């Protein structure tokens, strides 16, 4: 009985898949915060190279992956697909559970799929330095890795609560040559204003984005790189789902359910969009589940509206499921999922009824992660535990109904740098937190008026 399904390097995807080509309704336009009109490529030029701006607005179904990017991908791609046979047995379920494992990359997550691509295009454009934000540190370490490959300086603003929680992620970024700054910081106007209002701010991805954008916009030799949310970032991640399509064919199965955890949306889009594209083209049906933390529930509790992508309101306005740009989440260990908004493309897909969102509490997610680790041997990152939890729940539903559904989820990283989270969980130090209705209403009251 096969456990893992491996593609050879010559079967690696040669193009990224753009779901915009298959959607029945176009994505709402990105708006200029000053004029309220759709932004132009020139508006984005201070932040991104032309090639990435073109990908951001492209409606083409396939965008070719440059040879140099493919050659770097081959260091860890194609990634393995596993059949979780021991988990199936432990759950006593008739379901078949598969997981695509992205923890084999040098940075230990799916994030290098876009970090390498972004570093390549910025290098081609003559950029000297990339600025970015990071929560859990998986994105920051991925961009640091990519920057080292292409000889680019990397400046990372790391959300302060994660900066303190995850010193080894910070050390990994620094080992790759990046400079890491706890956010909010005294280095930017955005950071100083936040600290003036709240000297003890634990930070948020929205604040860290503000700092990174401010620096990039004010320095001609710098550009900004984002690890999630934007269309071109989600595009680069679709190598995951494309490989999984081929590997599921090798296994002689096709998923009834595809699960991904969602914070900004890149991991979810990476696994789900190629399968969703097949559904939209009338090839095979599939149920898509997007899982987010109850402490940061943009899809399940937020509003689908135009909002800023950052706290200091330096970014354009995008239509997305949002909790409000001033939202600062609790310091849950799933730092990569602590973002006030959801990727516009993921938000649009959910709004069209093409994916079902759900939220999970962190204690249940850690319990699921340990169940998985004790039978499959891989310790998931706290973010990935949300997908593990949903996959286990769906498998247990099959146990109750007697159905033998095929479940596929994306195990988007490993938890080797997150052991303090597991120590805290097993010591009973973690608690479930929920974003109250009053806090939701307060943050959403500040949404920008568009119309």
Could you please describe the fold and organization of this structure?
- This protein is 41% helix and 16% strand.
- It has 451 residues and is an alpha/beta fold.
- The strands form four sheets. Strands 1-4-5-15-10-11-14 form a seven-stranded mixed sheet, sandwiched between helices.
- Strand 6, helix 6 and strand 7 form a beta-alpha-beta unit.
- Helix 6 runs parallel beside helix 8 and helix 9 packs antiparallel against helix 10.
- The longest helix has 18 residues.
- The chain is globular, with a radius of gyration of 20 Å.
**Uncertain regions spanning at least 5 consecutive residues:** none
Helix content: 40-55%
Number of helices: 19
Mean pLDDT: 94
Radius of gyration: 20 Å
As a percent range, the share of strand residues is 15-25%
Which structural class should the secondary elements be placed in? Answer: alpha/beta
Please state the overall shape, judged from the principal axes of the Cα atoms. globular
User: Biggest sheet: strands, sense, closure?
Assistant: 7 strands, mixed
Give the termini separation. Answer: 58 Å
Q: What strand order characterises the main sheet?
A: 1-4-5-15-10-11-14
Number of strands: 15
GO molecular function: L-serine hydro-lyase (adding indole, L-tryptophan-forming) activity; pyridoxal phosphate binding; tryptophan synthase activity
Protein name: Tryptophan synthase beta chain
Catalytic activity: (1S,2R)-1-C-(indol-3-yl)glycerol 3-phosphate + L-serine = D-glyceraldehyde 3-phosphate + L-tryptophan + H2O
Subunit structure: Tetramer of two alpha and two beta chains.
